[in-house]
Amino acid sequence: MSVVLAIETATAAVEVGLVVNDQPVQSWSSGRTRHHTEHLLAMIDTALKAAGLTPADLDGIAVDAGPGLFTGLRVGLATAKGLAVALVRPVVACTSLEILAAAVATDLDGPVVAVVDGRRGEVFAQQFTVMHGQVMPVGEALACAPDALCALAPPGSTMVGDGAVLLRSTLVDQRPDCMVLEAPTVPPAAALALLGQGALDAGHGRDPAGLVAHYLRDADARVNFATRTPAP
């Protein structure tokens, strides 16, 4: 039996998922936002018990490494690293943007732009080509303003993620050739678990010591400190 646990904390939502023998098991969500520390471990315990499993049954752990909320990312990565070290299991780190693209890959073909709300008037975005269920990145992920997002999307793009929904009016006005999906708004743990399973099957699991977050920009606290502290 092959079992992969997915940990999704890159956005305001907290979600875990399981894949058993390449089949997604129900995902579990806290139903609340921005309570990553309080809920994550309890949700993992609930998910494993509901599936009749224990931590020792896990073959690997998949985690969303961002971009997204700084605190949520740190909580998810620290939890994944701790479990992987304790269980001596490999980890797979996926980005929030590739998870969003993978979540819609079975329903469409063509250019997809995954967009996560980055706050501070920015979004995190990346273009992908989706073909026959396969997701291929086009260029790098970046933090950008709404106008730059409009320029990033190729003709006929499908946009997915909470950042796209947030900017729907701007996107519809400036890029009527593109479509904004209502869902998913956050990276689904089930899609993350399947990506993790595929990576592990291909031998791409990694040592948890090498886990790093894809922030794409400085933390809000560092920016706020820099802007409020007079230059010497």
Secondary structure elements and pairings:
Layout (H helix, E strand, L loop, with lengths): L2 E6 L6 E6 L2 E7 L6 H15 L9 E5 L5 H18 L3 E4 L1 H8 L6 E8 L5 E9 L2 E11 L1 H7 L5 E3 L1 H5 L1 H7 L4 E2 L8 H13 L18 H9 L4
Parallel strand pairs: 1-4, 4-5, 6-9, 9-10
Antiparallel strand pairs: 1-2, 2-3, 6-7, 7-8
Specify the structural class: alpha/beta
User: Roughly what percent helix?
Assistant: 25-40%
CATH fold-level assignment of the largest domain: Nucleotidyltransferase, domain 5
* Order of adjacent strands in the largest pleated sheet: 3-2-1-4-5
**What CATH first level of the largest domain would be assigned?**
Alpha Beta
Mean pLDDT: 90
Number of H/I helices: 8
Can you walk me through this structure?
The protein has 232 residues and is an alpha/beta fold. The chain folds into two domains: 3-96 and 186-227, 2-Layer Sandwich (Nucleotidyltransferase, domain 5); 103-180, ATPase, nucleotide binding domain (Nucleotidyltransferase, domain 5). 35% of the residues lie in helices and 26% in strands. It is built from eight helices and ten strands. It has helices at 36-50, 70-87, 96-103, 146-152, 162-166, 168-174, 189-201, 220-228; strands at residues 3-8, 15-20, 23-29, 60-64, 91-94, 110-117, 123-131, 134-144, 158-160, 179-180. It has a five-stranded mixed sheet with strand order 3-2-1-4-5, with helices on both faces. Strands 8-7-6-9-10 form a five-stranded mixed sheet, with helices on both faces. A hairpin with a 5-residue loop joins strand 6 (110-117) and strand 7. The termini are far apart. Mean pLDDT is 90; it is low at 221-229.
